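Q: Hi! First time doing this. I have a protein sequence and I read that you can turn it into a structure. Is that right? Here it is:
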Amino acid sequence: MIIKHTSPILTRTLATAAVVSTLATAPAKAQSYYEFEIIAREGDTVGGLEVSGISAALINENGDIAFSGSSGSRSSRVSAVWSTTDVLLVEGQSLGGVTLPDFSQSTFAFNDAGQAAVASDGFGLDGVFTSTGTAITAGSDVGGNIISGNFDRNPALADDGTLFFTADVGTTTTVFRGTDVLAQEGDVIGGVTLTDIGSANTDGVFGIDGAGNAVFFNNLGFGAPGPTAVVSTAGFAIEEDSPFPSGPLAGQNVDLITGPSFGLGVNTQGDVAFRAIVDGVRGIYTQDGLLIANGMIDGIDGAFFGATDLNDNGSFVSFFEDSVVFNDAIVLDGQILITENDTIEGFDIDFLTGFGGLDLNNQGDFVFTPVLFDPNTDEFFSAVVRATLIPEPTSLALLGLGGLLLTRRRPSVRVNA
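A: Yes, that's right. Below is the predicted 3D structure, encoded as structure tokens:
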């Protein structure tokens, strides 16, 4: 059945959502419903290539979905990125005169034009590669800068095909937008000196906004030379052990910035969502202040973790953990939407967070990659699940919607009220 989402998506902007109380008082849209649908699963064949494993998924503003994973047997698996109908990238194909090597499946980029980008670091031939044929590797000349290597695993791709990535020029980690240098270690942005852009496995360009700015971590990870900071080439930075730079929390101490497992949430307006502790309050923040604090969500005591994303309408989605009632859940706009007690299309949710993050578009739809359990075959499998927002219509239109839904694939989702 369809889940009724009794906590509506809020119409406020992030600028007015700087404090938690705003979430309770902001004007809201009508109630809405969410429909959960399995888009792809292990064992499917998409574009002539069998899906053996699923790692991450993204949804663009057109509602198109892409996902990364592996194909083949355990002894001969190759990395790949699929759309719902085609193979976008696959290890072994020729791109820009080189053979695409094994690449990171946990992070990739997908834009509104349906193009994808991946990065390979430590898999043989290091570089960044796009489905349009771009291949940048060690020795490549990018705007007069000779790349020496050390590519980070989180490229980004603008809708016009511009590739954002980080790599070393000599020994200096550099953030590129196409052939332009956006930032380098040694630069000062928002009062923060860039000394170590990113760190192993959770580094590089985490997100881009609509103005062509990149957002990334500085000094993230063990052994980093200084406090962690969230930095945007738009000119702001938020650093641990320093005062919050702006908004209602200006002057309060940033105690800790937590590196999320699958990147920062960045929308086209340049709002950035990240997990942190400020003056002892743990929660999700933007550069404008506190978005939502850990604690009681729908009467359940828990904490946000892992991926967070937000859209241009001010809606946000995140994973939420409770060790007593349901273990893991997905929270949308501060309300629990689905938990590990639920089912999707008759399959039990074994591991809600799966191996990837959450990606939310401006229509309120999002994708995630849970591990599901088939009670009929006693088998576990990874899947790509799309959550589709269906705003509640008027009574008359609801009758028409009811007939429409009868003709659609209707996933089975159990909700324990």
